[in-house]
Amino acid sequence: MQELIEYIAKNLVDAPDDVKVTEDKQRGRTVIHLEVGADDYGRVIGRNGRIAQSMRALLKVSAVRHREYASLEIGE
Amino acid sequence: MAGVEASGKTVEEAIENALDELGAERDEVEIEVLEEPKKGRLGIGGHDARVKVRLIGDEDDDDEPAPGNRADPVVHDDDDDDDQDEEDVEREVKLDDDGNPIEDEAEVAAQMLDQLLVLMGIEGDVSIRDAETPGDGLGMAKAVLEVEGDDLGVLIGRRGETLGSLQYLLNLMVTRKLGDGNYFTVDIEGYRRRREQQLSTLATRTAETVKRTKRPTTLEPMPPNERRIIHLTLSEDRYVETDSVGEGEERRVSISPKRSAMRE
């Protein structure tokens, strides 16, 4: 699931090398944490958060497939 | 490509009208206000707002040249011996009108989609076909990327929302890679096809009722691409006309008796 978010983010930002994705598992819940270069947050959040929302929708599909519960946090 | 001009009483209304015509969401377009609305005196001299709306996959990097256009034209070296190791298989390079090589954009998009599916843990095959109907995004989409597999309902989601997210993200990614004008429709197990059938049947039946009762009817709220199908289905109808009312998520199509037809 981490790889999914990483793949999407790297293909959206100006600075793919600055994309950092970490995964934190707590009691069956997976929290994916996404950080990008300071100028790139707009590219992974989008107007009214639409890009972030879309990433969450795909993450949810992935989580269902892996029989897990996952959420996505963006920012430092 | 795929730019439309529309007008309305306010700039907002003009934009909504243009989005309806494109069947696109606001994030997927670039908007240019051609004319602010002007109120005339005693109904004379005023005019509506006019906007130009263009489909893009990305919001704010219009000035960045597409990598595909940046590549130098392939120069064929007569001296074959030197570069035999580099590339034995000579790929056929298609050239555009200006003689620049064209990457097969649909192929690139299909590979990205395939990679997304793999990373989501979904087994599906991606194939490429031409857009043939309004539901395929005919006139806007370069191609349809069709996903076939088992049990892909989860990827479609309620009212096709997850499919919408997938298509939206894919187009953003593809645009980043290939530049503007590369818009693709994603379909999953023929969902959009079936939905298009349902919608055009719904449109035709509702139009029949409107004709019979001579009363306008408003349909359920629908996303832009679905409203576009209703509009297009009834665009040639002599007896009814369609319009979109409401904002955002609540925007719906209304079907009413055509005024000119009523006079006949």
Detailed description of the structure:
The complex is a heterodimer of chains A (76) and B (264). Chain A is α+β, with helices and mostly antiparallel strands and 76 residues long. Chain A is built from three helices and three strands; from the N terminus they run αββααβ. The mean pLDDT of chain A is 94. In chain B, helix 1 crosses helix 7, helix 3 (105-120) packs across helix 5 (161-178) and helix 6 crosses helix 7. In chain B, strand 4 and strand 5 (101-102) form a beta hairpin. Chain B is built from eight helices and eleven strands. Residues 58-91 of chain B have low confidence and may be disordered. Chain B has three domains: 4-61, no CATH class; 97-189, GMP Synthetase, Chain A, domain 3 (2-Layer Sandwich), CATH 3.30.300; 193-262, 2-Layer Sandwich (Ribosomal Protein S8, Chain: A, domain 1). The A-B interface holds A 3-4, 7-8, 11-12, 42, 46-48, 50-51, 53-55, 57-58, 60-62, 64-66 and B 25-27, 59-60, 112, 115-116, 119-122, 154-155, 157, 161-162, 165-166, 168-169, 172-173, 176-177.
Question: Averaged pLDDT of chain B, please?
Answer: 82
* Element pattern of chain A in H and E: HEEHHE
Biggest protein-protein contact in the assembly: A-B, 23 and 25 residues
CATH top level class name of the largest domain in chain B: Alpha Beta
Strand content of chain B: 15-25%
Classify the fold: give the CATH topology of the largest domain in chain B: GMP Synthetase, Chain A, domain 3
Poorly predicted tracts of residues of chain B = 58-91
